[in-house]
Design goal:
- Helix 2 (46-63) runs antiparallel to helix 3.
- By secondary structure, the chain is of the alpha+beta class.
- 30% of the residues lie in helices and 25% in strands.
- A 5-stranded antiparallel sheet has the order 1-2-3-5-4, covered by helices on one side.
- The protein has one domain: Histidine kinase-like ATPase, C-terminal domain (Heat Shock Protein 90).
- The longest helix is centred in the middle third of the chain and has 18 residues, at 46-63.
- It has 3 helices and 5 strands; from the N terminus they run βααββαββ.
């Protein structure tokens, strides 16, 4: 008897999602990331991916001057990559926030929980991203 393991596509198609520049976008972004992870059987921790996505989208809509931001989901080289594009040209800077501070800890969470994170300039502004390495046991 031959048993075949399910085959995951080597490179998943990028998914681009336009989100409105208002607070409801954060919940929509979390939902979209979780749906992508489950639909494509991406071996990362969905709650961690949703939390980090929330942080990037919250920062983007806080400083966004246009009506929307764009989230791009990809899975290159054995990792989930989430990018959030906005029109702000100011670079993201992690700050040392107190443990009980109500704001300012977002990028600290991204730094601690992601495999990698960063940003780059785009023709329209900038993109901030994080990656999560695949964990086959998930």
């Amino acid at each position: 008897m031959e048993t075949m393991a399910p085959i995951r596509p080597a490179l998943l198609r990028p998914r681009r999602i336009s989100l409105p520049s208002r607070p409801a976008a954060v919940a929509e972004a979390r939902s979209q990331v979780k749906a992508y992870i489950y639909a494509w059987d991406v071996p990362v921790d969905p709650p961690v991916a949703a939390l980090l996505t929330s942080e990037l989208v919250t920062n983007a809509i806080r400083y966004e001057t246009s009506e929307s931001v764009t989230m791009v989901l990809t899975c290159p080289w054995g990792q989930l990559r989430v990018e959030v594009h906005d029109t702000s040209s100011s670079m993201p800077v992690p700050i040392e926030a107190a443990a009980d501070a109500e704001a300012g800890r977002g990028l600290m969470l991204v730094t601690c929980l992601s495999s990698d994170w960063g940003w780059y300039r785009t023709s329209a502004g900038k993109a901030v991203y994080f990656t999560l390495e695949f964990h086959p046991d998930l």
